[in-house]
Design a protein that fits this description.
single chain, alpha/beta, 7 helices, globular, Rossmann fold, 185 residues, 6-stranded parallel β-sheet
Length: 185
């Protein structure tokens, strides 16, 4: 059994990561970092609720850390987990700069830890269908590929960190990384 610590219980932690961790045989959701609300304890009563990454990393049994926090915090939280000799899954985007990504990859290698990015749309039907078609050769030589998400809103959501003008924010980092991943896979 692999004990997992989940850092962040916002949209990604609540909707994607915690349910997946709980559903996979061999994984146990041991602790959740939730700083401001208290619904994690109600939804996952067997998990310990802590207020910081440091509290989570103090739990020796945790071997895998899942980072599901705002994009600008991915680098620092992942670095802390790697320094504490934990394997890490980071929600997309991995980091906000290539330099940060390279540093984390090097650190994971130095520490002998597993490090990967969570790209949940790889399991969606459109992604799998496109991959299957390309691999089959039925489409021939592909000269051009176009994909998009139909999402439009005139106003930004108040307080939404994904829509603030911060590094790693905006539609490109939220959804565009999925399109790039799809085109390159």
């Amino acid at each position: 059994m692999i004990d997992v610590g989940l850092v962040g219980f916002g949209f990604a932690g609540r909707v994607f990561h915690a349910p997946v961790i709980s559903a996979v045989p061999g994984l146990r959701l041991r602790a959740i970092v939730q700083r401001s609300a208290d619904d994690a304890k109600r939804l996952y009563p067997d998990a310990r609720i802590v207020k910081s990454i440091y509290d989570l990393l103090d739990i020796d049994e945790i071997k895998l850390v899942v980072v599901a926090t705002p994009n600008t915090s991915h680098y620092e939280l992942t670095k802390q987990a790697l320094l504490a000799r934990r394997d890490v899954v980071v929600d997309k985007p991995f980091t906000t700069t290539l330099k940060e990504a390279a540093e984390l990859v090097d650190l994971a290698k130095q520490r002998g830890r597993l490090l990967t990015v969570y790209q949940n749309l790889r399991s969606n039907g459109d992604f799998r269908t496109i991959r299957r078609l390309v691999e089959s050769g039925r489409l021939g030589r592909i000269a051009s590929y176009e994909a998009h998400f139909d999402r439009y809103r005139l106003q930004m959501r108040p307080g939404a960190w994904r829509e603030k003008p911060d590094p790693g924010s905006g539609v490109f980092f939220d959804l565009g990384v999925h399109l790039i991943d799809q085109a390159m896979s």
